[in-house]
Amino acid sequence: MPHPRCGPEDTPEQAWPDFPEELPDLPPSPGREKPPWWDVPEAGPMNQMQFMLLFSRQGKLRLQKWYVPLSDKEKKKITRELVQTVLARKPKMCSFLEWRDLKIVYKRYASLYFCCAIEDQDNELITLEIIHRYVELLDKYFGSVCELDIIFNFEKAYFILDEFLLGGEVQETSKKNVLKAIEQADLLQEEAETPRSVLEEIGLT
Amino acid sequence: MALKMVKGSIDRMFDKNLQDLVRGIRNHKEDEAKYISQCIDEIKQELKQDNIAVKANAVCKLTYLQMLGYDISWAAFNIIEVMSASKFTFKRIGYLAASQCFHEGTDVIMLTTNQIRKDLSSPNQYDTGVALTGLSCFVTPDLARDLANDIMTLMSHTKPYIRKKAVLIMYKVFLKYPESLRPAFPRLKEKLEDPDPGVQSAAVNVICELARRNPKNYLSLAPLFFKLMTSSTNNWVLIKIIKLFGALTPLEPRLGKKLIEPLTNLIHSTSAMSLLYECVNTVIPILKSPVLARNNTVFLYVEKLYFVFFPPTVKYLGLLAMSKILKTHPKSVQSHKDLILQCLDDKDESIRLRALDLLYGMVSKKNLMEIVKKLMIHVDKAEGTTYRDELLTKIIDICSQSNYQYITNFEWYISILVELTRLEGTRHGHLIAAQMLDVAIRVKAIRKFAVSQMAMLLDNAHLIASNTQRNGICEVLYAAAWICGEFSDHLEESNQTLEAMLRPKVTTLPGHIQAVYVQNMVKLYASILQQKEQAGEKEAAQEITQLMIDRLPQFVQSADLEVQERASCILQLIKYIQKLQIKEVPVAEEVIALFAGELNPVAPKAQKKVPVPEGLDLDAWINEPPSDSESEDEKPRTIFHDEEQRHSRHRQPEIDEEELARRREVRKQEQANNPFYIKSSPSPQKQYQDTPGVEHIPVVQIDLSVPLKVPGMPMSDQYVKLEEERRHKQKLEKDKKKKKQKKEKKGKHRRHNSLHTESDEDIAPAQHVDIITEEMPENALPSDEDDKDPNDPYKALDIDLDKPLADSEKLPVQRHRNAENLKSPDTEAPLVGKKSKKPKKKEKKHKEKEREKEKKKEREKKVTEEGKKVVCVLSATYDIQGNLQNDSQVTVSVIFENKSTSFLKSMELNVLDSLNAKMLRPEGSSVHDGIPVPFQLPPGISNEAQFVFTLQSIVMAQKLKGTLSFIVKNDNGSTHEKLDFKLHFSCASYLITTPCYSDAFAKLLESGDLHMSSIKVDGISISFQHLLAKICFYHHFSVVERVDSCASMYSRSIQGHHVCLLVKKGENSVSVDGKCNDSTLLSNLLDEMKETLSKC
């Protein structure tokens, strides 16, 4: 079931705007003061998924969701390493790689990489399906999603993810239900927002 | 006021929203950092305003910046403010920000408890939902404890949307606050049958996750899950259930049989790859049913896997699945060997590494050489040092696995190692070196060959050490030098080797290698000296000494301390030898004596595995610490007193010389009978020549003049050929024998005769191979505890769920909304259901008390296993001691002995309590709980555990029924076993031997408040002395006075009853008159005594 617009066949240059420069905000490459296994994340509480990262072909992080408690420093380090590792892989290579004591499952949709970390015993294929399902959800919600949608509405992307997964476990397997929940929550938000016009707030009504 | 509001709102119109921020960042590519710091300043201003909308907008922007890697922890309090906004729009943003940046270390998190509780009970389901989602990301132990009850209530919410979220988050709560598991579990179980499929699948998820970590507690749920599995059509749920069964089947073998049919159906019908993969992955490897093997179903799975998964993106998974199947069905995977070898060429490294892993498990004696040969080809081809190093380590791993189990020809292995030294720039020189040393030390038959190869390496050291890039590999010279030195007897061209070691080039090697060189050239020198002296070549002997004296100074000048020190020491020694040589004194014997004796391998964990002898308390003072009191006069008395006590207490561990000698003898005997030990001979090095089998070693002529790189066929290949020939010959011989057998057994057609497969066992090793097992101290316990991680977060969730809930086990309910929940967590922590604490402290006391063998009973558990062999698995012996300190307790010490060849673990002893006698269980556990035996039993090992029982009345004997459940684990998997037993508490076990003086005894008899009773036993033949000893031993009495054939005896019960006896011996009979405070106790005691005496 190839995705209408997010299929990997799309040439990213046409479908997505490019952001060529490197991430400026991440600290320079790590020193050798600590052995590499120093801060390997401990076996997380939820085995299904440890974290999910979305990043662009240029290595820009677009979304991150952590299901294990880690300090910001560790998160940054993991993100940096993983983004580098995944981006270095060639297109025809398999979607799985072993990294530290985790298994990484990733898939590229146009210029976005969706990347999940799972534990040793977990099912890689179902993780691949989860990624696909999430992309489908994004696509349904935004209507032909593109990277810009996720950048400018990143909170919405999180809300959708939160309705789909909870604590790393699949929460709702029905696409319809997820979208319904999001729509209703949005409706609630709009209801709350509509009466609040500027004038009203100033107190001129 | 109005003005302020106006100002705030107008400001807001000009505030940047998230879109502006994103756009701004993209428009400031050159000075992004500057732009963002500007934005953060603006955000800080916005956060200072009262308007919640402005704050929410600011927090939203911060969340975006957090993703870009900026620290926003400073805004944690503002996030909480936004979380507590009444409008859903803002609340949603607040919770999102919190879930992204809060973690356990965030200190303001405890301020959120009440806000979250309020949101959880909000009438709006989306408020609740957003709170649950947020909580799932940042739940802390405190939050879990305080909110567990609220969340549990939500599991029964009217809206399925809330129910499923609540169910899922319960798992997080369990992890953070394990005490909540038992109270919440019944409701969680209910949710398995929730009408809403989403909630049901959430419950399946949670229980499966719990069960995978601690499967044994969830066995009772198997039927329910079985029903779900056959009825559910949801693949997501099915995958979870199959995973769960994967964890349960090892514990309950019968499950396996039941699962075969539905699983086979699933595998054949499903189109979902993930489900198929899960089936193969989890369940197949543990199903060892003969049905599967017969149908070749597994084989089918592998085929299907391979062909289904063949596209490159998922080829990896095929390999992964194979490695799982390999463990149980090696044959079906081995047939794919070529495919797997092909994968080594794959350009994707993860596939190559997987394939390597698979090869590791596939090797057998038969195919080892072939596989390693292929790997060696890949080593040559490999690009990039990392992968080549990986290959190198894998080759070594494959060959050395399970104590070199698969190597039939060690010469071949040594040549492989030597070939590996040609690798340029590898980091694993030390690995190769370690292997060389290990093989040379442990396989005695190979030493001669190893030494010749090492000599060759030393001779060609310039090839190895010349290139600076090859730094890692020069480690092998370390091994080479040591082997040549230590086993110099086997060296043929010793002179040449010695000269090679003395070359000036050697001084460029790393210091630690030079040091080994220096040390070992002396060994070499010593053996040459001996040879020359024995041959009477004095000239040659002096020449060699002169050579040493000439060349050693280059090492004396070394910058490395170790080298310098050794060299100068040795130089002096040799100068001295030279002096003696000039005087024509024979010195060789003395020099060689410097290096006499042999080094034996010792296991790395040997020391750790020596169990602490019983009665030895390592923490106890050996000498009393100097007391603080200055009073001199008191001191000598206390020391004397203590010493006496200590002496009696620690008698056990002190073993005298005799005992030591005896043990040594026993051990020697054992080693002599052990085929893996060959060091019982006094000088094994010399005996080596006589070892049978050495003559058969095909010694390959080595031309020392050729460099290491042998053109054409590498050395090891010759062995492959040789080996093939050898095997062929063996096979022919065997066939001959078989034919003979056939002739003998004419008519008797046996099936296995016609099966003409060469199994692993058929291949006899080329040399007589002795792998000396590493030395372990006596009584060493094979501890598998070493690897257990005490910090395993799932351990806390190992909780029995079938046990009824105790009243104390309730989730804490917060009744008042006040400052209480800001208190430190410890003060509030409820005392509920602590299960795992062991009450061992109490028993320590007992050890100090007199212990007497009370009663011995042996029960052996006979288990019928496959093949209807009766195997004795476990025997338990117990004895019972009274407790002087506590008048209603006795201690039962049970010695468990594992008589099987399997590993016994998870032993749990349980006793059906009677009204009178109860087993003392840890606080909080119910009467149906067993007490875990605090150790596991490897085969042949015995160990003692103590259990305390409380008794109401001790005047009557007791019998308690009990069961010991345990898991028998062997190669075929593990099975649950039970052993039923009866504990017999005789009245005598309540007595404690107490000495009594005759005058006190007389007073006691005079006091008159004792009941009296007597017995008479006929047909006694043993001596009176003997008889008294029996009563003392079995019934815990002590003799007060003895006059001729009449004796008075005394004992006391743990509850303070006095028991006095008058024993008289007649011709052939004995009469016992007893007096005691309690008539029932007395008559019971006398009955028991009658039984003992009548056996005499």
From TrEMBL, chain B:
Gene3D superfamilies: Leucine-rich Repeat Variant, Longin domain
Subcellular location: Cytoplasm; Golgi apparatus membrane
Region Disordered, annotated ranges: 617-692, 723-862
Composition bias, Basic and acidic residues: 634-670, 723-735, 790-826, 849-862
Signal peptide (from-to): none
Compositional bias per record (Polar residues), positions renumbered to this chain: 680-690
Membrane topology listed for this record: Peripheral membrane protein
Superkingdom in the source lineage: Eukaryota
UniProt feature, compositional bias: Basic residues: 736-754, 834-848
Keywords: Acetylation, Coiled coil, Cytoplasm, Golgi apparatus, Membrane, Phosphoprotein, Protein transport, Repeat, Transport
Pfam families per record: Adaptin_N, AP3D1, Mu_AP3
Cross-referenced InterPro entries: AP3_complex_dsu, AP3D_dom_metazoa, ARM-like, ARM-type_fold, Clathrin/coatomer_adapt-like_N, Mu_AP3
Principal location: cytoplasm
An individual GO BP term: synaptic vesicle budding from endosome
SUPFAM superfamilies: ARM repeat (SSF48371)
Family per similarity comment: Belongs to the adaptor complexes large subunit family.
Designated name of the protein: AP-3 complex subunit delta-1
Native organism: Gopherus evgoodei (Goodes thornscrub tortoise)
